[in-house]
Amino acid sequence: MERTGDGSAGDADYARIGFGYADYRRPDPRIAEVILRELGDAYTVLNVGAGAGSYEPRDRDVTAVEPSATMRIQREAGLPRAIDATAERLPFDDDAFDASLATFTVHQWADIDRGLAEMRRVTRGPVLVLSCDPKALDRFWLDEYAPEVIDTEAARYPEVEHIAEALGANSRIIDVPIPLDCLDGFGEAYYGRPEALLDPGARQANSAWSFVGPLVARRFVRELGDELASGAWDAKYGDLRTQPEFEGSLRLIVGLQ
């Protein structure tokens, strides 16, 4: 498995795109509530591909694993220091944790099946994976303005059914609605706030944009900006500005022993 200079182990180079990530990708409390509910009374929790620490419960004993040094240095004060390791080789004994968690990360793993098997190996209880359903990504209006981004994401994200199958027969797939004022700036979080995606920092915090190149980004900014100025976007999608939730691609897969 190749790793970049800062240790990034997936398909995205966070040495190049990771700075400022934590400014845009903050945990949303409503999404966190779904995760906490499914963690139940688990106290020792492993967070794999932990990044800057989003969705790590503050009232549990958390062990974080993150290969990218760029992401590790963005962790908030008070969070545990992340261990430099990858999902495919977790340096822990069998059944070491009550539960394990992976949020917005499995699509970047070099070997999804091995990583999930490792999470299952080291976990006594539930394994939680927050990811996106690639078959539902085109529900988002971005598919009209930058279909290359949606196609890139659809090709990277593993099917949620595959994740569930890998985690065992007792797995469940939970649809997670996205709130209008979502604090976590993944793409669909801006479904009712299109102006926000004109910000290059917001796009950089979504790794798919790093694969499509600057020409796509410039075209997107020009076309969306023109349609916002003319009112054309609002004529097509304006109802989204006041829609409290968006039923997009966000899914929580929960695997039980």
Quick summary:
With 257 residues, this protein is of the alpha/beta class. It is built from 12 helices and 8 strands. The chain has a 6-stranded mixed sheet with strand order 2-1-3-4-8-5, sandwiched between helices. Strands 6-7 form a two-stranded antiparallel ribbon.
Task: Please describe the topology of this protein.
Blueprint: H1 14-17, H2 21-24, H3 29-39, E1 44-48, E2 61-65, H4 69-72, E3 99-103, H5 112-121, E4 127-132, H6 142-145, H7 147-156, H8 160-167, E5 172-175, E6 178-179, H9 200-204, H10 209-212, H11 214-230, H12 232-237, E7 245-246, E8 250-255
Parallel strand pairs: 1-2, 1-3, 3-4
Antiparallel strand pairs: 4-8, 5-8, 6-7
Question: Could you characterize what this model shows?
Answer:
The structure is a single chain. The protein is α/β, with parallel strands linked by helices. Helix content is 34%, strand content 14%. It contains 12 helices and 8 strands. It has helices at 14-17, 21-24, 29-39, 69-72, 112-121, 142-145, 147-156, 160-167, 200-204, 209-212, 214-230, 232-237; strands at residues 44-48, 61-65, 99-103, 127-132, 172-175, 178-179, 245-246, 250-255. The protein has a 6-stranded mixed sheet, sandwiched between helices. Strands 6-7 form a two-stranded antiparallel ribbon. β3 (99-103), α5 (112-121) and β4 (127-132) form a beta-alpha-beta unit. The chain is globular and about 60 Å long. The mean pLDDT is 92.
